[in-house]
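The records we work with from here on pair a chain with its fold. These numbers are not coordinates but entries in a learned vocabulary of local backbone shapes. To see the layout at work, look at the sequence and tokens printed below.

. . .
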Amino acid sequence: MKLRILLATFGLLFAGLVASPATADSTPSGLAASAMGHACTRTSSGTSCIRGGQFCPQSKYGRSGWDAYGRRYVCKGNRTHPHWMRP
């Protein structure tokens, strides 16, 4: 009985260790962080990664950001309505 409990506990712990990395990298930001060495830049609402052509905050003007696939974008264009553009 004790051996069965011990094996069941070990099995649950092992399953948790195996499943954790797969679920952590399933998001686009996890993909960018693991593939490119940094996480994606979030939109001003904070719900998703930036995409080319989207508006960026005026406070980010001239700064770089990365999308979910690790591509670099720069906040540039019209200073009153800047966009994320490829350099």
Observations:
- Residues 61 and 78 are 9 Å apart (CA to CA).
